[in-house]
Amino acid sequence: MTRTIAPPHPFDAAVELTPVGDGLFRGHTSPAYANMVGPFGGITAATLVRAVQQHPDRLGDPLSLTVNFAGPVTEGPFEISARPVRTNRSTQHWALELSQGGVVATTATAVFGTRRETWSSTEIAAPDVPALDEVEAGTFPDFIAWARNYEMRFVEGGIPTTEAAEHPDTVSTLWVRDTPARPLDFAALTALSDVFFPRIFLRRGQFMPAGTVSMTVYFHADAEVLAEQAEDALLGTARAQQIRRGYFDQSAELWGRDGALLATTHQLVYFKD
Q1: What is the pLDDT of residues 165-201, one digit of tens each?
Q2: How far, in Å, are 2, 34, 148, 232 from residue 142 at the CA level?
Q3: How many CB atoms lie within 10 A of CB 164?
Q4: CB 178: neighbour CB atoms within 10 A?
Q5: Separation of alpha carbons 188 and 191, rounded Å
Q6: CA-wise closest residue to 230 among 168, 167, 178, 166
Q7: How far is 264 from 238, CA to CA, in rounded Å?
Q8: 12 in helix, strand or coil?
Q9: In whole angstroms, how far apart are CA 263 and each of 186, 201, 224, 234, 260?
Q10: Is 82 in contact with 25 (CB distance < 8 Å)?
Q11: Euclidean distance between CA atoms 104 and 100, whole angstroms
């Protein structure tokens, strides 16, 4: 009897890398995660995390990641260089570059490390929202391919329609998870940290040219907490603090089971009007 091998999850196919020696990895962009211009930034960030995870010298799990989108990533092959610049007892610092045809498109730094049991406190709380099954699933325009890989149920601040008016604030809160369902891991959590569309879309009630310049993710969960999350939806909320002279910031939180804070993220985004 011939055994049929199931194809990989679209996410795993998108972040697949082939080691080619000396901290170098080769990959290829995925049409399933295309954005309005180039790939979805979250999938690029997730691929950088995967590169460090596959490096033979890696210590521990992600603690933070900062990605600087220096230029457009075009459809096709790319190469990632991952280099540990310093390893301490419990932390390890990484420098990464994604290039195409010898031209650097993305730079990043990451901190990986091991955690130990300590006193803990969380001073913010998850938003008080209706349960997942009480919120209708939302849809994105067809030209945003990457959004089809996520189930998004907006409690507030959904994607604006063509008839939308300006919104009084920039807050979006939603339930979100991979579709098809997939157990949560660090790479997937990285990508989920970028599912929040540019805040200016909501504030102005319209689509306009915008793109992330720099994104930082802080990972508050360890591997055990992510395993407990399994395939459950996460609760996310995002907002901007100021929109001014072609740039704005964007901050977000991702919450899991029992109100566990899994990640916080901060971005600098450019826009044109």
Answers
A1: 899 999 999 999 999 999 999 999 999 999 999 999 9
A2: 38, 11, 8, 25
A3: 15
A4: 20
A5: 5
A6: 178
A7: 10
A8: helix
A9: 10, 23, 14, 11, 9
A10: yes
A11: 7
CA torsion angle for 127, 259, 112, 12 (degrees, to 10)?
A: -90
The one-character DSSP state at 26 is: E
Residues of the chain with pLDDT under 50: none
Cα–Cα distance measured from residue 48 to residue 53, given in angstroms and rounded to the nearest whole number? 9
Q: How far is CA 219 from CA 35, 154, 239, 248, in A?
A: 24, 23, 19, 23
Tokens (6 digits) for 46: 């997730």
How many Å apart are CA 138 and CA 197, to the nearest integer?
13
Q: Residue 70 half-sphere exposure, CB side, CA atoms within 13 Å?
A: 11
The pair of structure tokens assigned to 198 is 């540019």
Residue 10, CA distances (Å) to 39, 60, 140, 179, 188 in order: 14, 26, 18, 9, 11
CA 135 to chain centre: 23
**Over the stretch 105-116, which tens digit does the pLDDT of each residue have?**
999 999 999 999
What does pTM read for this prediction? 0.96
Structure tokens at 179: 């579709």
d(CA 253, CA 230): 18
- The set of residues, in sequence order, having a beta carbon less than 8 Å from that of 142 and lying 6+ positions away, is none
What residue type is assigned to position 70 of the chain? A
- Strand intervals (E) in the chain: 18-21, 24-28, 61-69, 77-87, 91-100, 103-113, 150-156, 172-178, 210-219, 234-239, 243-244, 247-255, 261-271
Beta pairing partners, 153: 175
